[in-house]
Amino acid sequence: MILLEVENRGVEEALKAHFELAKAKGRFDVVNANICDFDGCSYKLEQCQGNNDTLRLSLSIGFFDELKEHGAVEKLRKVYGNYLVSDGSDGNEITLEFNAGTLPDDHEELANRAARLRRNCFAAVFEKYFEAQASGSQVKRAVIHYRPDETMYVEAKSDRVTVIFSTVFRDRDDINIGSVFLQEFREGRRGLAAAPQVLFSTKTPPQELAGTDARSGENVGYVTFVLLPRHFNPKIPQTGEKTIDLIHTFRNYLHYHIKCSKAYINSRMRRKTDDFLKVLNRARPDAQNKKGATAR
């Protein structure tokens, strides 16, 4: 199965190219580009008007107000430091600013870090609940409406952290394909005991969401991850970082593979139809008669 990249590839490659040019020329070239990302987020890369020494990268997130409640602003300040000129505290746009004269030697690492801007906004939510579970603190469940009809719920309990994604299946077949796809997660857990438990339900919300405004319906699905302390061990920071990388892209990962599966099935159907047409053409009586007449 293909894992989606955590960073935005378009942003990373564009920044690398402009950083390299700035290192050589001492200034940035003119640029004004819009780059899309998942969940309605979009990046804007532009040279500051009238100042070719400065390059700006802005990220627009429609649901950033909900992320701010869980420490997203503080997380961005910690990760980006002086590069952060607008932290979204007064809106839904985060802006990083780069100066051609002060670019670090390892500008590729800086480009990669900037391309993970959306990921780091989400990371603040998970880190908060990982820390709450480890310390035994009681915190209110996080509710992030990351899409107009879809929601993510994160809750810390005494022995685990649960992450629930609600998602909408636009096509009835998507539910069946998604069920088969998620069955592989359950099968894989048998051979890998350290993997988190994954639960999938449709139509009605799981019991953990009883009494909330969680949607129900024929095309609504819920995927629940049960994360145990070993999945975000504070003593091993890389463990928690890897978990965040994988889980925050899960919704897009799921629908990406559903689309890939449908495309593969359709390609196999078209190939099989072509084979059947060839058999039918060979079986036509007039085709056989013409072949015999030609032979004589």
Highlighted features:
2 domains, Yope Regulator, Chain: A, five-stranded antiparallel sheet, 10 strands, 296 residues, 9 helices
Helix content: 40-55%
As a whole number of angstroms, the C-alpha radius of gyration is 25 Å
> What order do the SSEs take from the amino end to the carboxyl end, as H and E?
HEEEHHEEHHEEEHEEHHH
Which structural class do you get from the secondary structure elements? alpha+beta
Number of strand elements: 10
Level-2 CATH architecture of the largest domain: 2-Layer Sandwich
Strand order of the largest sheet: 1-2-3-5-4
Query: Which CATH class of the largest domain is shown?
Result: Alpha Beta
- Look up the CATH topology of the largest domain: Yope Regulator, Chain: A
List unreliable stretches of 5+ residues: none
Write the layout of secondary structure elements.
Layout: H1 9-25, E1 32-36, E2 42-47, E3 54-60, H2 64-68, H3 72-80, E4 84-87, E5 93-99, H4 107-115, H5 117-135, E6 142-147, E7 150-156, E8 161-168, H6 172-191, E9 197-203, E10 217-227, H7 237-247, H8 250-283, H9 285-295
Antiparallel strand pairs: 1-2, 2-3, 3-5, 4-5, 6-7, 7-8, 8-10, 9-10
Helix pairs in contact: 1-4, 3-5, 5-7, 6-8
